[in-house]
Recover the amino acids of this structure.
């Protein structure tokens, strides 16, 4: 049985609340789980200690038994010092503007460069 430590969503519409659970990887996201080891409330301020509550001893125990954390839970465990902090994920091609937008940006940058060069060359020297 492949064990996963992941988030299980609860809460109302547009008011998320997540339980951090150990579950079989084949079970549904909000379905049956083996053990609840904490919770995460994204609606609370980031500096509030109630935002993330995690039983680190139980998490270490499940990791020793072979449970694999999801990306978000791995980040939580990395911040807590239980595991090494995962490498930040990056997908720069998705975040880039599309071709036409890049052309417009380049044209605007060229126009701004020409505008900044012209007044400097035409300015009379004061003596």
């Amino acid at each position: 049985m492949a064990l996963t430590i992941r988030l299980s969503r609860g809460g109302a519409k547009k008011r998320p609340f997540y339980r951090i659970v150990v579950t079989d990887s084949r079970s549904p996201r909000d379905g049956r789980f083996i053990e609840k080891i904490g919770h995460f409330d994204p609606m609370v301020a980031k500096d509030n200690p109630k935002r993330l509550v995690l039983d680190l001893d139980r998490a270490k125990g499940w990791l020793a038994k072979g449970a694999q954390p999801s990306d978000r839970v791995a980040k939580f465990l990395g911040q807590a010092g239980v595991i090494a902090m995962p490498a930040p994920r990056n997908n720069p091609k998705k975040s880039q503007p599309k071709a036409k937008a890049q052309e417009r940006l380049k044209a605007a940058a060229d126009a701004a460069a020409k505008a900044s060069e012209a007044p400097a060359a035409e300015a009379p020297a004061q003596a």
Summary: The chain has two domains: 3-80, 92-120. Strands lie at 3-12, 15-24, 35-40, 52-54, 68-69. The helical segments are 56-64, 71-80, 92-95, 99-122.
